[in-house]
């Protein structure tokens, strides 16, 4: 059996690693860029390791990566972000972020009575009896709730910062999705961890695994441009090769790009409902210093301006040269603009807000910056998890392909959904191959 995987990001590499681990399957993984990793691409600059996307893992002790470690024999280490050093800034005041019982008791964003109310809400989420799961959206739940405005604001802020979206959009996330997400996170003993050495620690091992199998090819700088079908086989046409023959194809790329690629094929109509899904985009502002300028906290979330800064190097020392410091600022973005000019001005104002936050807590940063990377449009999730968007199933009726990636159905959010959906499609293919073999023997 010959399998093509289109996309060399976390999901495509995961699917390829599982399939190449199984005898009797040949395959090619196509990646249009010169490098693998997709949005989890990592690169070195002046001794700093910069991630195109961050490498925080949410709920490490309940994460798909644990299955992958065991099943694929991966080896990596992670370190937990120190919860006591995670703060919220509200009206210029710093206060512990209410992430666990200890921080909730210390935080200034809730009054004593509100703290009890919030703890009760967390307990209800953990035991799966919270009413939130029955509401179409967080906004619907908050409209009915008799909680104080501070508790409501806290819910919005939590969802906003975990899903990388604005508070207005947080109100449009389904109650069921939020209840499930926080049940997992509140039950976790390792809510936020960094993979030491960044995503490349994992992608390098996945690539190593695929490369061990001589029946597998990794084709970088080779975008797949179209696909046709002949005699029950799929013919892939890439930028450099024509009519490569495969028995099965996995699309491991953002959903909107898959819909575009298949637009004028017999399967285009089935992808139509997913074509206009909106994605989650953020502004990313990385700065690296050759020495630690200041370390007032490890993470700050500015509740007024909807920005956060992670002192990545406070947790993961592998990303900096000795004694250095790496900060990553992220701003959640609105996507509702009348024209490009308005959008440009908005992005400019977000950049200035971010720089002002650096000025406040890292004085002198402008004169001490060794590396800097600003991206005004980074796609965190290819499908924003609001109730009007629809995640793409791993298989669709009347469509002979498999789909994986962070815009597809799968466990968790963000990178976990990329890993879990990649693992799932590989396991589904292996199961159906085993079934076909069993039938042919009987
Ligand atoms: C700023 C930022 C911060 C983030 N922070 C976190 C975080 O802290 N924690 C977390 O869990 N996740 C985080 N993420 C999300 C995480 O990076 C993504 O969920 C994950 O990398 C998505 O992987 P994927 O395989 O689904 O898609 P992609 O990474 O987009 O991979 C798709 C690949 O397909 C290739 N491709 C597209 N079209 C073609 C074609 N026609 N032919 C061949 N190849 C093609 C692309 O070049 C790409 O390499 C962050 C992302 C960003 C941008």
From TrEMBL:
It comes from the Bacteria. Transmembrane segments: none annotated. Gene3D superfamilies: 3.90.660.10, FAD/NAD(P)-binding domain, protoporphyrinogen ix oxidase, domain 3, Protoporphyrinogen oxidase, mitochondrial, domain 2. One of its GO terms (molecular function) is oxidoreductase activity. Residues 10-430 form the Amine oxidase domain. This is Amine oxidase. It comes from Paenibacillus lentus.
């Amino acid at each position: 059996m010959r399998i093509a995987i289109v996309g060399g990001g976390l999901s495509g590499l995961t699917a390829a690693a599982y399939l190449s681990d199984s005898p009797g399957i040949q395959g090619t993984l196509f990646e249009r860029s010169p490098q693998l990793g997709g949005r989890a691409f990592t690169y070195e600059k002046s001794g700093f390791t910069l991630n195109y996307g961050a490498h925080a893992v949410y709920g490490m002790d309940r994460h798909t990566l644990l299955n992958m470690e065991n099943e694929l024999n991966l080896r990596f280490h992670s370190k937990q972000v120190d919860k006591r050093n995670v703060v919220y800034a509200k009206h210029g005041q710093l206060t512990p972020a209410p992430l666990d019982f200890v921080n909730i008791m210390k935080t200034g964003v809730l009054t004593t009575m509100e703290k009890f109310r919030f703890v009760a809400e967390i307990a209800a989420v953990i035991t799966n009896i919270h009413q939130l799961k029955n509401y179409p959206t967080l906004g619907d739940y908050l409209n009915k709730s008799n909680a104080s405005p501070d508790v409501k604001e806290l819910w919005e802020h939590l969802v906003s910062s975990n899903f990388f979206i604005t508070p207005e959009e947080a109100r449009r996330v389904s109650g069921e999705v939020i209840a499930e997400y926080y049940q997992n996170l509140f039950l976790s003993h390792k809510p936020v961890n960094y993979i030491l050495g960044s995503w490349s620690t994992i992608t390098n091992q996945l690539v190593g695994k695929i490369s061990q199998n001589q029946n597998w090819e990794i084709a970088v700088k080779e975008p797949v441009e179209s696909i046709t079908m002949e005699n029950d086989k799929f013919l892939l046409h890439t930028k450099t090769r024509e009519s490569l023959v495969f028995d099965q194809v996995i699309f491991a790329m953002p959903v909107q790009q898959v819909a575009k690629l298949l637009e004028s094929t017999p399967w285009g109509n089935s992808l139509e409902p997913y074509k206009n899904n909106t994605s989650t985009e953020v502004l990313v502002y990385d700065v690296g210093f050759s020495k630690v300028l200041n370390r007032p906290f490890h993470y700050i979330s500015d509740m007024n301006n909807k920005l956060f800064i992670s002192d990545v190097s406070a947790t993961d020392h592998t990303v900096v040269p000795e004694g250095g410091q790496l900060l990553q600022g992220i701003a959640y973005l609105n996507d509702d603009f009348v024209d490009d000019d308005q959008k440009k001005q908005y992005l400019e104002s977000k950049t200035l807000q971010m720089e002002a936050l650096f000025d406040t807590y890292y004085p002198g940063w402008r004169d001490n910056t060794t590396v800097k990377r600003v991206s005004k449009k980074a796609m965190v999730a290819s499908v924003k998890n609001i109730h009007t968007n629809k995640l793409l199933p791993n298989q669709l009726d009347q469509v002979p392909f498999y789909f994986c990636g962070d815009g597809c159905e799968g466990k968790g959010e963000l990178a976990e959904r990329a890993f879990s959906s990649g693992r799932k499609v590989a396991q589904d293919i292996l199961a159906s191959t085993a079934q076909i073999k069993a039938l042919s023997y009987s």
